Amino acid sequence: MWNLVREHLNDIVAAALFVIGFGDLLFQKNMIKKIIGLNIMDTAIYLLLASQGYIEGRKAPIVVDGVKDVSAYINPIPSGLVLTGIVVSVSVTALLLSLTIRMYKKYHSLDLDYCLMMARREG
Amino acid sequence: MEFVKNFPFFSIMLCMFCAIICSVLNRHAAKHFTRIVLLIVMVLSGVLLINTYNSGESFVYYMGHFPAPWGNEIRGGCLEAVFALFVSTVAFLSVVAGGKAIEFDIEDKKENLFFILVCLMTSSLLAMCYTNDLFTGYVFIEINTISGCGLIMVRQLGKTTVTAVRYMVISLLGSGLFLIGVTLLYTLTGHLLMSNIQESVSELLQSGDYRMQLTIVIGLMTVGLAIKSGLFPFHLWIPDAYGQSNVVSSSLLSGTVSKGYIFLLIKIYMRTIGMEAIEKSGVLYVCFYLGIIAMVLGSVLALHERSFRRMIAFSSIAQIGYIFMGIGLGTKAAIAAAIFHIFAHGLTKSLLFISSSEFTEGSHSKSIDDLKGLGYKYRYSALCYSIGAFSIVGFPLLAGFISKLLLGGAALGHGPLQWIALLALAVSTILNAVYFLRTVVYLYIPTEHIDRDNEETVKVTNTNANGKTDKLLLLPGMHCPSYVIGISVLVLLNFLLGLCSGPVTDIINKGLEVFR
Fold it and tell me: What does the pLDDT average to over A67-76?
């Protein structure tokens, strides 16, 4: 049992983080907490991806002195995906934050439910 | 043919560059430039459709001529081409017909920003439609979400901001689930290209390993895309998003954006994972039953809604249900019917949203009750709206009738499922008829506000129903040539889909044959 946990520690942590982030994004009322949840969720996916590409004892595929054998390097594709994912999540976070600022200026609250109620009342 | 293979790439890039260039143009230049680019994309997709239809084959295009594991791939076939044609047509006609509505809702200096969003949305939809790489699909899903959020935001009111925030949050939940699905699929198969994944999955199926993991992956991706397209029970964002934004945004969001996700889902089912694995996972039942519930519930909610635009938005929930029901049936005929419904609904919904703009702006009210008698004031819009309403209810001669016929026909022979499907179709159609025809009847209720002059012109136009578009151009309100042309073409396309459904279903069937 303990061995299994140790073998899949990254996956377990990633799954836990994903659930926490997803729950935050879904259930928190405060927009800032929602955005933090979004980032936790994305980080969990990057952890999962990066750990899938990592092979024990190997290095990043950057040629420093002469071309080494393929067996010296880790799988670079997941790292590339993580980079792309980070770019996406940064832009989405920026957009959400700017929307939050705009919402706060209008309704003076970060509570999405409250703002929704106020918006409904406007008609 | 060799040169035509470049067209998918050209259309995606054209839209993207158009978006970039629009940022430095003034509003008139941006408007015309966007229209021209969308028209070019329409022509390119049309030529591609003719070519792929004649050759009956699909092709793979290597970006930058790097083959598979290093480069990115685009795949073009009949189905992709016809979907691209649909997306660009709806986008073009919405932008053309809604020109006045855009000017009405958006500040002059910011109008070019709206066209950036339209171009970005179109290019991401085209990329989602053509791509052969799952991760590229994810990236363009996010771009689509961002541009969709912008489209809701363009009408700068407090409530659209809140709606956009909610749309964004719900969409991000969906794309998070989709991304983790892609990640897990990558760890299972070691590939990101759709055709390679399919090979690995069929090997996995034969060996019987990782059955559970595969089911989880399929579930995550389906739920992710279902959230984004607004299937019941993830539909809560739809009424506000479609009901409060600018009409052109609503028409684009409901007509094309939500359909793009569904097209990607069909692509994942048929080309990435393969129908065999999908059927074994049982996810089709989930799609089917959720679709059935959405069909009935969306219609019931629309029946209770008093706000006009929100009512049309609620009907979108029901129509998304139809499409998911078709996918849930799982046979080729059912999926062809679902794709036909995507086209029929996209064209009809844009027509409804855009023609409704005049009533809500004209009467300064959103309520259905205030529609009374407006049919005499805005005759052409009311006529087009009525045709759209008839089409969505499923009157013969119109697009909605054929799609319901195809869905009903595809449901036959499914054992107990066929009764559920047919019953839900019947109930939903009746409810559709009740709430849509109610608005049509309200439009044509004579009210005492109409003065004598108006009544006389009504009599005149009623007697010579043919050549009256010329006269209607002179009517007050938001009428302008581009509006009339735009909605007229939408009406024509509705009739075309209804009357000449044969060629369209033929194209879809031929596309589905090579869609693997």
Answer: 80
